Amino acid sequence: MITLAAPLGLLALAAFAVPLLVHLWRPPPRTVRLGSLRFLREGARRPVRNLRWRELLRLALRLLLLATLALLLARPWWNRPAASGSKWALRSPEAILAGEAENAWRSLLAEGFEPRWLAPGFPRTRPADPELPADPWSLLAEADALLPAAGELAVAASPRLADLRSNRPELSRSVRWIESTAPERGPSRPLKAEPPVRVGVRADSDRAEDARRVTAALRAIAASGTPAFEIVDSAEAGKRPIDWLIALGDVPVPPGSANVLRDADPNSESFAIATTFAGERLRRRVVSKSPGLVLARDGFGDPIASEQRTRDAREIRLETRFHPDWMDAASSSALAVWLRDLLAPRADSISPQDQRRAAGAQAHPAVRSGAEPRVVLPVSQATELTSALWLLALFLFALERAWNVLR
């Protein structure tokens, strides 16, 4: 499936009118007086029909060249189709199968399940040791979207609470879960109460709606209690030390703001885009100019949030705005989830050393009835076609020039 990063680039197809008008335009007939034609060779006179199809072929070649250039402006991407197979048995790289768990796994393979690893891309070969253990919930949601509606899904993973880091998903099918053991990560540590994350919001006059959306998301985080959030009034942001300041627009940063999150630079040129960010549709963004560390990318893999650090502070630049005209996440709970994970990653209440396990079916994803799986392709399965189109454009241009010389 082909998607366009900049669909407005197809407006360049209006250039088709130029070669069409040149081809259709005919000069007024003129009378030219000639001498005798009896000495001309018969083969030197070309049939009119032969000239006509040659002209049509040259016109088609020029139109194809213009169409290729228009596609270059539209930035097409090719999404590779999902892997085949309707019965997947996914095994966590950390899962230790023994006893009943090993027998259940062998039974799945005997039933025709295709063994894969519970890792990004669902490879058939064991992946290298990752920095973090696989998150069964988020990966099962992706596998559910890739499998056909009649497919079956099974997983062998440990139901440790420390490994279930994402929100419990709702899938379109039930999952056969084989509870395995996981390697010990040390003794479980007592949970310590973290101090609240103090966040302030300052907005320019044209960012009132953005500030309202951000404040609502912060209040939702504070109401959940996990993590502990404290919203500081904008007037007090410069008087009391805070952990984060969300600066919307061209506003000064008061002293005492340890970390700053800025939205799109008001002096940067913005453009419409049809992609995703934070699981929702992204409608508009600015050109990324920040040289910092990339924290998040949009659905096309382009940087959408980057970070620059000093010795005592962090500054994050977002290449879009918290406005419904710019992103759909501004009107959904996705904004609160993204801000929570960005501003308070320390607030994860479960330590990696925690050995507690989810009780019974609490680890199993919920099943929604009467819903088709939503087709979602990982970013790694998308390939930009710009290089191939450039080669095609150069080939067509060379062919058109050679045609004019040799005709």
Describe the structure.
The chain has 407 residues and is α/β, with parallel strands linked by helices. The chain is built from seven helices and 18 strands. Helix 5 links the parallel strand 8 and strand 9. Helix 2 runs antiparallel to helix 7 (386-406) and helix 5 packs across helix 6.
Tally of helical segments:
7
Distance between the termini: 39 Å
Mean pLDDT across residues? 77
Task: Tell me the fraction of residues in β-strands, as a range.
Answer: 15-25%
Helix content: 25-40%
Give the spatial strand order of the biggest sheet. Answer: 9-8-10-11-16-15-14
| SSE class | alpha/beta
Provide the gyration radius in Å.
30 Å
Overall geometry? flat
The biggest beta sheet reads: 7 strands, mixed
Elements, N to C (H/E):
EHHEEHEHEEEEHEEEEEEEEHEEH
In total, how many beta strands? 18
Q: Report low-confidence residues grouped into runs of 5 or more.
A: 371-380
